[in-house]
Write a structure and sequence with these properties.
- With about 110 residues, the chain is α/β, with parallel strands linked by helices.
- The chain has one domain: Oxidized Rhodanese, domain 1, CATH 3.40.250.
- Helices cover about 35% and strands about 20% of the residues.
- It contains five helices and five strands, in the order βαβαβαβαβα.
């Protein structure tokens, strides 16, 4: 049984995602490097959609994964790939915009607030 209680990729809100990350879930900000440098979710790993298969080694299957993006299609693709490789994955409904709208910060590549 998966951590999220679903057979496939679950959708969770930004507040739940923040709680899950605080409790040890891995966080992916899926997209392009320029987006990540401009502002990403704190402690997130950048995963470019076309490189997801090469980035899987950075993740542990022992911990759930939360995926956020600025584009739902990118998030869906990355999350589906991870799910197909045996990871327990959830996506933030509304992505990076929902994260920010819920009052959670974004940071730049240098760690300062975006």
């Amino acid at each position: 049984m998966s951590f999220w209680g679903h057979e496939s990729v679950a959708m969770i809100d930004a507040d739940r995602a923040a709680r899950e990350v605080e409790q040890g879930a891995q966080l992916i900000d899926a997209g392009e490097p320029n987006e990540w440098f401009e502002g990403h979710l704190p402690h997130a790993i950048l995963v470019e959609p076309e490189l997801v298969d090469q980035e899987i080694h950075k993740l542990s299957k022992d911990k759930p994964v939360v995926v956020a993006s600025r584009n739902v299609d990118i998030a869906t693709g990355v999350a589906a790939t991870l799910h197909n490789h045996g990871f327990d994955v959830a996506m933030i409904e509304g992505g990076v915009g929902a994260w920010r709208a819920a009052g959670h910060p974004l940071v730049k590549a240098d760690g300062t607030k975006a």
